[in-house]
TrEMBL record:
Gene3D superfamilies: 1.10.3380.30, 5' to 3' exonuclease, C-terminal subdomain, P-loop containing nucleotide triphosphate hydrolases, Winged helix-like DNA-binding domain superfamily/Winged helix DNA-binding domain. Residues 756-769 have a biased composition (Low complexity). It comes from the Archaea. Residues 770-779 have a biased composition (Acidic residues). Keywords: ATP-binding, DNA damage, DNA repair, DNA-binding, Helicase, Hydrolase, Isomerase, Nucleotide-binding. Monomer. NCBIfam families: PRK02362.1. Its EC number is 5.6.2.4. The lineage of its organism: Archaea, Methanobacteriati, Methanobacteriota, Stenosarchaea group, Halobacteria. This is ATP-dependent DNA helicase Hel308.
Length: 787
DNA sequence: CAGCCACTTGTCTAGACAGCATGTC
DNA sequence: CTAGACAAGTGGCTG
């Protein structure tokens, strides 16, 4: 089918596609159009990665907009949201507007209401539903990308419930679900009342194979000699082999450490094939990476990048991740070794994909468990760059003939697993049942069960009554913690009034439906997007505090909620943090588990470790020191700080809600973690342009609050802040009447500025060691080193 | 005696969404 | 009940 034959699109859309070099639709796309994608019909497209799924979405959304509607595109990751938004923004050329809504992106609901296409993460959509964004009922088309993630234990239920809610909100909604090829696409289509388009067609050939010995055997029967020379590893031989043809490769491994070690080794292979220009550009990139963050991880990454290789995992900062991804797409980097982050993330195709590790540590399995077929296929699907490579190659590594055979059977010839709803897991239901009640989707127990009937879980359930049972447990839990109230139902029967209970009364009570209503606290929890269990923990912790909680107490409190990802204890650390615990026991909120409850006590200490990390950050320790001390990457640190900020913000709302007297303490702890400063700097840091480092330098020079910025000698300020432009900017933000720095010379400051007049001024460590304040910090560090 | 290797032992394990109100060095 | 890669340490061999 030619794009010219498409109808129902906004005028200009077809020529836009033609300008992009799209003439003929790919077969799956044509099939989708035939199935009614442009006519508002629902559809499930289960097709391989990179076979034009986005185009199917685009055609559906654009035709919906042309009919006067509004479309929503749901993605699983923030990074994908920005990628898609950039793609859809090009439609502005013919008058179709696009916006993005994620947790960290600027976005007011009013502003989104004006956009034709909105891109959002599933959690953000869920949150918008909970907060009653009224434009949601104007939606006529919703696209769910990577819908197979419904299978995910943690985040799948959110997507599932959100889709069910959107469809309930607007029964005529066109639902377009894009999925990898999975075992049961037909079930998903049934659930969504949608047509199914299923194919394994790909725009570029994908050859899958297994490397063993000196040979690479493909699924089509062909063989390629790839000798392993000397002591080199198989993946090194494979990377070198394809690099000599000018192709890049992607190596998937199962741990961060493996990714880093492999990148280091592969750097030797890649560096042999670099041109001088490439070396220069890579050196620049390496510099950029070192500038982004001053940590061991950054240095290691930069060292690799200089040689044309890189590692990629969640310990990298988001900046570093995009640097690596972009450079690989520009063919500057020859090889990336990555954990599975990359397989699910933004598009980074390579000529050859090497799945080195097909087993991953899984404590629940007690050891190494094989990866899902679906997951391996997702990785393999990254092979082949459209328009650049003649074909893509996906290779598994075997050590012997038996393993080679096993890999063919297990992954090459195998079909992916079916998608199974994980909704009946209690943690998932806890949060979604509360949200469903709070946002009025269900007002009775019956109504709740009816709503749950509309989920994929219900359509798949082989165990009748399971969902009902778990739902009842969850309702009990929510009621016990004052998140909901039940009234009028059979369970209340006779409990209160003690009056006579006749058979007739009983019958009547059983007939009457039990009503469910969220309490004010329950509404708050739902809107804040907290797991009810986190909220309960925080509420209980705040209520149990007799004295003003310390920052560490609050940090440990939020760190032990299920919304904080666990920082786990390494061997030996249980003792270290056990000591810290006895030192600072009094600061912790709520009841500590007994030491004899080993598992719970470990969790408690792990939360203390995370809390201590946050305290270190709020005591202005360097990023480098923290990442080294806790053996984490810069990305992990930022993630922790981010989450803590969010949770403490939520805790502040909860504190207000329950009239806690510690609201201010929570707010202060949050502000300290947000800016990474001690409380004496909180005022300074509220001035635009002043962060943790500048604030500390200003404070040391005797400028302790914004008022001082307005009155102090400009020479002193300039001396601290270096650049005139920066100084002017900050003075303006502080509200100084005459911010101009013209003709002002740096003056040496009163307190700590004596060594500060070096011209470069970029030594963040230099000024740390001077004042009483940092002496404190040092002390806490040495005590930390001891335990 | 230095340098290299082969082998042993101990350690450790993927990922990342959300509120709210505005802006790091 | 289940693994395996890496890094650091150890010991033996060679020149």
């Amino acid at each position: 089918m030619n794009v010219e034959e498409l109808s129902g699109l906004p005028p200009g859309a077809v020529s836009h596609f033609r300008d992009q070099g799209i003439e003929e639709l790919y077969p799956p796309q044509a099939e989708a159009v035939e199935a009614g994608a442009t006519e508002g019909d629902s559809l499930v497209a289960a097709v391989p990665t990179a076979s034009g799924k986005t185009m199917i979405a685009a055609l559906s959304m654009l035709s919906a907009v042309q009919r006067g509607g509004k479309a929503l595109y749901i993605v699983p990751l923030r990074a994908l949201a920005s990628e898609k938004k950039a793609e859809f923004e090009a439609y502005e050329e013919f008058g179709v507007t696009a916006g993005v809504a994620t947790g960290n992106y600027e976005s007011t609901s009013d502003w989104l209401a004006t956009k034709d296409i909105v891109v959002a993460t599933s959690e953000k959509v869920d949150s918008l539903v909970r907060n009653g964004a009224d434009w949601l009922s104007d939606l006529t088309c919703v696209v769910s990308d990577e819908v197979h993630l419904i299978d995910d234990r943690n985040r799948g239920p959110t997507l599932e419930v959100t889709l069910a809610k959107l469809r309930k909100l607007n029964p005529d909604l066109q639902t377009v679900a894009l999925s990898a090829t999975v075992g049961n696409a037909d079930e998903i289509a049934d659930w969504l009342d949608a047509e199914l388009v299923e194919t394994d067609w790909r725009p570029i050939d994908l050859r899958m194979g297994v490397h063993y010995g000196n040979a690479l055997n493909f699924d089509d029967g062909s063989t390629r000699e790839v000798p392993v020379e000397g002591s080199e590893k198989q993946e090194a031989a494979l990377v070198r082999d394809i690099l000599q043809e000018g192709g890049s490769s992607l190596v998937f491994v199962n741990s961060r450490r493996n990714a880093e070690a492999a990148a280091r080794r592969l750097g030797k292979v890649a560096s042999r094939e670099l041109t001088p220009e490439e070396e220069d550009q890579l050196a620049e990139l390496a510099e950029e990476i070192r500038d982004d963050s001053d940590t061991e991880t950054s240095k290691d990454l930069a060292d690799c990048v200089e040689r044309g290789s890189a590692f990629h995992h969640a310990g990298l900062s988001s900046t570093q991740r995009s640097i690596v991804e972009d450079a690989f797409r520009d063919r500057l980097l020859k090889v990336i070794s990555a954990t599975p982050t990359l397989a699910a993330g933004v598009n980074t195709p390579a000529r050859r994909v090497i799945v080195r590790d097909w087993r991953r540590f899984d404590p629940s399995a007690g050891g190494m468990a094989p990866l899902d077929v679906l997951e391996v296929h997702q990785m393999m699907g990254r092979a082949g760059r459209p328009g650049l490579d003649p074909y893509g190659e996906a290779v598994l590594l075997a050590k012997n003939h038996d393993e080679s055979q096993e890999l063919f059977d297990r992954y090459v010839w195998a079909d992916p697993e079916p998608v199974r709803s994980k909704l009946a897991a209690e943690p998932a239901l806890r949060t979604h049942v509360l949200a469903t009640i709070a946002s009025g989707f269900a007002r009775t127990r019956e109504g709740l069960l009816e709503f749950l009937e509309a989920t994929l879980y219900a359509s798949q359930s082989s165990e009748p009554g399971r969902l009902e049972r778990v739902a009842d447990d969850v309702l009990d839990y929510l009621e016990r913690n004052d998140f909901i109230e039940r009234s009028g139902g059979a369970s209340d029967a006779g409990a209160g009034d003690g009056a006579f209970t006749s058979a007739a009364d009983l019958a009547e009570q059983n007939d009457r439906e039990e009503e469910l209503e969220a309490t004010s606290l329950g509404h708050t929890v739902s809107r804040l997007y907290l797991d009810p269990m986190s909220a309960a923990e925080i509420v209980h912790g705040l209520e149990s505090a007799d004295d003003r909680p310390t920052a560490l107490g609050l940090y440990q409190l939020v760190s032990r909620t299920p919304d904080m990802y666990e920082l786990y204890l390494r061997s030996g650390e249980d003792e270290k943090f056990g000591e810290l615990y006895y030192e600072r026991e009094a600061e912790l909120l709520g009841d500590a588990p007994s030491e004899f409850e080993e598992e719970r006590f470990e969790d408690w200490l792990a939360a203390l470790k995370t809390g201590k990390l946050l305290e270190d950050w709020a005591e202005e320790d360097d990023e480098e020191r923290i990442t080294e001390r806790y053996k984490i990457g810069p990305g992990d640190l930022r993630g922790k700080v981010d989450t803590a900020e969010w949770l403490l913000g939520a805790a502040e709302s909860l504190a207000r809600e329950i009239d806690s007297e510690w609201t201010v303490a929570v707010r202060e702890a949050r502000a300290r973690v947000e800016h990474g400063v001690g409380d004496e700097l909180l005022e300074l840091v509220s001035v635009g342009g002043v962060g943790r480092k500048r604030a500390r330098r200003l404070y040391e020079a005797g400028i302790e609050e914004p008022a001082d910025l307005r009155n102090a000698d400009k020479g002193v300020i300039l001396n601290v802040l270096k650049g005139k432009k920066t100084a002017e900017n900050i003075l303006e933000n502080a509200g100084r009447e005459d911010p101009s720095m013209d003709e002002v010379e740096p003056a040496s400051g009163d307190a700590g500025g004596t060594t500060g007049d070096s011209s470069a001024g970029d030594e963040p460590n230099a000024n740390d060691a001077e004042t009483a304040e940092s002496a404190d910090a040092d002390e806490s560090q040495s005590s930390l080193g001891d335990f």
